[in-house]
Amino acid sequence: MQPLDSDLMRSFLAVADCGSVTAAADRLFRTQSAVSLQIKRLEDSLGQPLFHRQARGVALTPRGEQLLPYARRVVALLDEAAIALREKPLVGPVRVGISDEYSGTVLPRALAAFDERHEGVQVSVRVDHSTAQIAALEADEIDLGVIYDWAYVQEGEVLCIDPTVWVTSLTHAQHLRRPVPVAVYFRSQWSRDYAEMSLDRHGIDWRAAWSCDMAAGFRVAVTNGMAIAPLSRSTIPPGCRELTAEDGFPIVDSARVVLRRNPRGTSPAIEGMAEVLRAAFAPLGGGKPG
Fold first, then answer.
1. Assuming Cys at both sites, which of 145, 163, 167, 262 could form a disulfide with 133, CB separation 3.0 to 4.6 Å?
2. pLDDT, tens digit, for every residue of 50-67?
3. pLDDT digits over 119-131, tens only?
4. CA distance 169 to 120
5. Cβ proximity of 114 and 92 under 8 Å
6. Secondary structure of the chain in the HEC alphabet?
């Protein structure tokens, strides 16, 4: 059996995506006749047509539809291999500070993947509140810090906007009780000025039912039906939901997630880690709060 040529698969994929040999030729920086010849070679190799020729463009035949997912996987693997083998290995230490809010949700897999991919880089992670992260940057204890900026005063690269919302368990529905059992931080000006104040402003009768100093503890409290808690929208645990204005609960804040750097300098390893952090938060989006 004659093996399939990866270059022919790449041309097939371009034509399938563009719906036109002409448009595919532009994407591949080849002539239309060259791409047409490659498609014919692939069809001859398989012994069956892959496209219906139409008045305007082309459409996949059933066999073409069958080949499409295989072509995507082949081309993606080839591109991934090229990037991995051409990439210069990174070396050296990278010290990352991440906010407690994201220590168990957004970042662990991204950091672990970076550590596995770049064996020459010694990654160390510090999990702490944003105020402590800023102090660590100033004291040269970390190279990069992911800062939770609820007051819009922090300098740095905005990774996303991730509002803090009140969260309740779907099973326990503690938000319906009066007074409402609430999770609060032991020592936090933010908790007093934003979370607790938002309840008071809306005349909600509440009591402190769970106190801790880490957001992970808040997720435990909500999941197990001990209290409602203020959590970043992106970190709502399974089996829980956001309380909205329809439930009578306001958004606590419209915080930005900011990447701050140690001003003393950078390195290829640090820049590589910055890109990982950027990619990890990209699905959360940016733009307007809310």
1. 145
2. 999 888 889 999 999 999
3. 788 889 999 888 8
4. 43
5. no
6. CCCCCHHHHHHHHHHHHHCCHHHHHHHHCCCHHHHHHHHHHHHHHHCCCCEEECCCCEEECHHHHHHHHHHHHHHHHHHHHHHHHHCCCCCEEEEEEEEHHHCCCCCHHHHHHHHHHCCCEEEEEEEECHHHHHHHHHCCCCCEEEEEECCCCCCCEEEEECCEEEEEECCCCHHHCCCEEEEEECCCHHHHHHHHHHHHHCCCCEEEEEEECCHHHHHHHHHCCCCEEEEEHHHCCCCEEECCHHHCCCCCECCEEEEEECCCCCCHHHHHHHHHHHHHHHHHCCCCCC
Question: What is the per-residue burial (b if ≥16 Cβ within 10 Å, else e) of 58-72?
Answer: bebeeebeebbeebe
CA gap 287, 233 in Å, rounded: 15
- The pTM of the full predicted model, rounded to 2 decimals, is 0.66
Q: State yes or no: pLDDT of 42 exceeds 60.
A: yes
Round to whole Å and give the CA distance between 10 and 232.
42
